[in-house]
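Reading a protein record of the kind used here takes little practice once its layout is understood. The reader may check this reading against the record printed directly beneath this paragraph.
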Amino acid sequence: AGDNDYNMKDEHRVNMPFNFTYGGGVAVDGDGHVIVADSANHRIRKIAKDGSVFTLAGSGTEGFQDGPCESARFNSPYSVTIDGYRNIIVVDTDNLRIRKITPDGFVHTIAGSKCQEFKDGHGAYVRFVRPSSVAVDQFGNLFVADSIHHSIRKITPSGLVTTLAGNGCPGNALGPGNSACFNIPTAVSLDGDGNVIVADYKNHRVL
């Protein structure tokens, strides 16, 4: 879906052109619709099974604002996933936040703030350096690739953020917890056994 005209537009009719300026990550919901992080348009969009395209959230104006989907603001959202409650989880990369679009049409911030640094904790006290990807497990835990901090972070359903692996320093080392070293991990996923799979970009490895 999409064409090479970089001006954003939705298209509610089938088999007609529509535009993504810079499409980031995608996820597929339980109904088979494709959810797209349209990064440069600062929107989250949906491609329905019939091929029509809708903006789910984001006003299109770069910025930060929670609230109703149509007035919410994002800043280069780059990755999306969908949890067991049909919430769309968004890595709002340039806002340094992890956010949630609920089925009733509201955007909420799960964790992060405008400060670009490292800090574990809860909610707005949490700091990310540059989050780039997110995955969710069957228990509702989120796993975030904090790429420029060279670490993988975990967010529990209660909102507690901890560092699962990596120590903030670039490197190439296997091992438990903060003895492991990554070099710009850019993507995460989960296998059927709950293992976190990491694309370790500068180390040219998948772990």
Summary: The longest strand covers residues 106-112.
